[in-house]
Amino acid sequence: MELNEIYTHIDHTQLKQTADWASVQKVCDEAILGGAASVCIPPCYVKQAADYVEGRMKICTVIGFPNGYQTTLVKLVETQEALASGAEEIDMVINLCDVKNGSFARVAHEIRALKQACGSRVLKVIVETCFLTEEEKVKLCHIVTESGADYIKTSTGFGSGGAAVEDVALFRRECGADVKIKAAGGIRSVEDAEKMMEAGADRLGSSALLRR
Predict the structure, then answer these.
(1) Shortest CA distance to 171 belongs to which of 137, 122, 131, 132?
(2) Catalytic one of 153, 167, 180, 192
(3) Contact 89, 59 (CB under 8 A)
(4) Is 30 exposed, middle or buried (0-12, 13-18, 19+ CB in 10 A)?
(5) Which residues contact 45 (CB under 8 A, 6 or more apart)?
(6) I want to staple 40 with a disulfide (CB 3.0 to 4.6 A). Which of 13, 84, 103, 142 is the partner?
């Protein structure tokens, strides 16, 4: 696959806790130059970044990040503020406490609530595969599909593991045809990107592939 084609599938990412504006501005510039799908940045920079890119690049941000155990109301307010500030794509972290308690109806309710807030804008659901059993992964594929989200996403990049080709392939088998897949966490080379896309990923979260 041509490198420029891979770039169009990348959410160019800067989510470090210590991210300053200069580093966010840099990923915006790199994403625009490389033709990335979006920049994925902390919520506190959404308005500033949206003003800076002036429509030249989609702004993606994270909700309930990175642990996911905020209440649904908190995540909903976060989402509404991010969208009002200029975000066009939302990457939410599910509540893994609910997953481990078997409270899958609560997980589904939360995804539906955030998708309703997003409307036609993109909602990606981070399930953090490194903490899941195989059974939980399959169950969450079905929940994400039934809840109307646009993407299922492997990882925050802040857990104990990142994207795995095997998980991307499982997602592709178990999710509905309308659900796309985002692989994130540890994708640092063209070879990594190609393997993820061959397995079924449509988006790649990466902080390295567009570095110049």
Answers:
(1) 137
(2) 153
(3) yes
(4) buried
(5) 19, 21, 24
(6) 13
Active-site pick, 29, 91, 150, 167: 91
pTM to 2 decimal places: 0.97
Reading the block at residue 5, the tokens are 């084609």
pLDDT one digit per residue (tens) for the chain, 212 residues: 888 999 999 999 999 999 999 999 999 999 999 999 999 999 999 999 999 999 999 999 999 999 999 999 999 999 999 999 999 999 999 999 999 999 999 999 999 999 999 999 999 999 999 999 999 999 999 999 999 999 999 999 999 999 999 999 999 999 999 999 999 999 999 999 999 999 999 999 999 988 74
Main-chain dihedrals φ then ψ at residue 13, nearest 5 degrees: -120, 135
